[in-house]
Design goal:
605 residues, eight-stranded mixed barrel, alpha+beta
């Protein structure tokens, strides 16, 4: 007997028509009637319509769900599965909770299922439709939670991380989810279990609470507030903005009321406060007296940039990837004024990105976050090392992909890649032959022999097809610095040292041609080589000082994920970053579009 059949008999008391858990909750037993048989026929007809849809029409995710639905109902003899009212109520709760994962509840037929729960359909065709919609809701939500709603390759053309596949017992899991009302637990098990996901999910819930309470007010633009002690009329608005997101503690109620009263007084009597004039201004006041009066006007303490507020601004700047200098300038005001709805969408987008890969990432990896300009190394689920990085410019984007770090090169030479060769190097050489000497570039043929630059007709290669290599010698001022981390990939992108150390002090570090420059490469080399005797920091430095190019194999490959997360968490702190490559809007559009579940909706009408 098949696993489906065995499971069917195991849950038969729940599903049998004479069960006390009838659809209307009356507790009265029911027998199969011609209408029940007709319902079975409609289920079979609707599934047949879905079967006739092509893979090209529906996409791989929907094709898989349709296959599992067909097998599910075949195991039930095309009988209705949702005869337990309590199970329907739990399904509604689960769908509603999926909004906290940034998903769209209408993708799971929520309105119709609510209506079915309140007003059970009486006709066989509507009963069959309701049953299939609820089964589809569970199967679709499970699929979205396991690997995302959006097919990653449709957004990232170079995406090379395969989505996690269902386990061998997936059919039994689906049957158990529906028949045993275990779908809340199973969906929870499919949700990425990492703290990164759960903390970002909490961030979404908190941001929605802020939105429900009215969001935050905009802070007016103006001159930079550059130091503690400066007075500015925008300070109360800045404080209120930071109070909303918890960057600064709220004022005590009494103090807040007094501040509001003072602000109202300021609006009512602006001329009196700002000039010191009385209502019966005397005609004999001269300019000197007015100046003396102005100098004696006390500053409103609520408009002072205090040390406490300075620290709150620094915290806000750190959370938003800005220069944490405490200066309230245009960039900081711009970040404060991003609407709460836009921040909600930003978090939803990045929860979806997490679903693409977190369930298959493993416990050991190197992770580069492009808009975070950061890298970390994790072993056994614990962060062992992290650093700042420099990534590609918007015109030379660092691709999003997975690769295996296999070895490192000490004192690497740089072979100029084809893209840079055609776009930059050869045009520069044609303009000025001294470019080769300034960049310490040698012309090398296919046999590794150096050629005289004068022997090359550079102008004939302005359109490409250059038959030689341009090689830059290693050294402190070499483009790759002293260490290169090799992760073979089709993009010719790797991680390496750099002589341009000053760029790491910038808050936005998109300066490279696409490779990832690492601030502390010797630290990373020591961790990945995993040999405290043969390759400790002292030995690595000695290899560098020898000034010879050499390769050192890693004891085992390290998975490297180069990802794009504009929202993430560090501990319980929500981190938000600018969308440096303008990728968020496209993903949001697809995330908010109608899901492939629309085919089920159409097929059951």
């Amino acid at each position: 007997m098949s696993p489906f059949a065995l499971l069917w008999f195991a849950v038969l008391p729940v599903m049998h028509p004479s069960s006390s858990a009838s659809i209307n909750g009356s507790g009265q037993s029911q027998e199969y009637t011609p209408s029940a048989t007709a319902t079975n026929a409609y289920i079979r007809e609707y599934l047949g319509r879905l079967d006739r849809l092509s893979l090209k029409q529906t996409g791989p995710d929907r094709a898989s769900i349709i296959m599992h639905m067909r097998r599910f109902y075949a195991a039930l003899g095309n009988r209705p599965a949702w005869t337990n009212r309590q199970a329907v109520a739990r399904l509604i709760e689960v769908i509603e909770d999926s909004a906290n994962d940034g998903l769209v509840v209408s993708d799971y037929h929520l309105d119709e299922i609510r209506n079915y729960y309140t007003n059970p359909p009486a006709s066989p065709d509507l009963m069959a439709r309701a049953d299939i919609l609820m089964t589809d809701a569970v199967f679709t939500l499970m699929s979205h939670m396991r690997s995302g709603k959006v097919y990653a390759r449709s957004i990232e053309s170079d995406w090379n991380i395969a989505p996690p596949l269902p386990g061998q017992d997936y059919d039994r899991t689906l049957m158990s989810a529906v028949m045993g009302s275990k779908f809340p637990e199973i969906i929870q098990s499919l949700r990425p279990a990492s703290s990164e996901y759960s903390q970002l999910r909490k961030g979404l819930i908190r941001m929605r609470e802020i939105a429900a309470a009215g969001g935050w007010e905009s802070v007016p633009s103006g001159p930079a507030i550059d130091k503690v002690g400066v007075a500015d009329q925008r300070i109360p608005a800045i404080r209120r903005r930071l109070e909303v997101t918890g960057d600064v503690a709220r004022l005590p109620v009494v103090q807040e009321a007094a501040a509001q009263k003072e602000e109202e007084k300021e609006h009512k009597e602006p001329s009196k406060r700002r000039t010191g004039k009385k209502d019966d201004t005397s005609s004999g006041a001269d300019s000197l007296a007015i100046a003396d009066t102005l100098r004696s006007i006390p500053v409103n303490p609520d408009e002072l940039y205090t040390a406490e507020l300075f620290e709150a601004v620094v915290a806000f700047q750190k959370r938003h990837g800005l220069n944490p200098d405490g200066v309230i300038g245009n960039e900081t005001i711009k970040a404060m004024n991003v609407p709460v709805g836009q921040r909600i969408d930003q978090i939803r987008i990045n929860l979806e990105r997490y679903r693409w890969f977190l369930n298959s990432r493993g416990a050991n990896y190197v992770m580069v976050n492009i808009p975070g300009f950061s890298v970390e190394l994790v072993q056994n689920g614990l962060r062992r090392w992290n650093s700042r990085v420099i990534v590609g410019t918007p015109d030379n984007k660092t691709p999003v992909f997975r690769a295996e770090m296999q070895y490192i090169i000490v004192n690497p030479q740089w072979v100029i890649p084809p893209g840079i060769l055609t776009k930059e190097a050869i045009p520069a050489i044609i303009r000025d032959r001294s470019y080769l000497q300034r960049k310490r570039l040698a012309v090398v043929d296919e046999n590794g022999q150096r050629l005289s630059p004068a022997s090359v007709d550079w102008s004939s290669y302005s359109g490409g097809s250059f038959p030689y290599r341009l090689v830059q010698a290693s050294g402190d001022d070499g483009s790759l610095g002293r260490i290169k981390f090799m992760l073979p990939n089709k993009f010719m992108v790797y991680m390496h040292d750099t002589p341009s150390k000053d760029l790491f002090g910038r808050s936005r570090r998109a300066f490279s041609h696409g490779c990832v420059r690492v601030e502390n490469p010797i630290d990373l080399a020591e961790v990945v080589l995993q040999d405290s005797v043969k390759w400790n920091r002292k030995k690595i430095q000695a290899a560098i000082d020898a000034r010879k190019t050499r390769s050192i194999d890693l004891p085992r490959n390290f998975p490297v994920y180069i990802m794009y997360q504009t929202a993430f968490s560090e501990g319980d702190q929500l981190q938000l970053r600018p969308d440096v490559y303008d990728r968020d809007s496209r993903l949001l559009k697809v995330l908010d579009s109608q899901a492939s579940s629309r085919f089920v909706d159409s097929a059951t009408r």
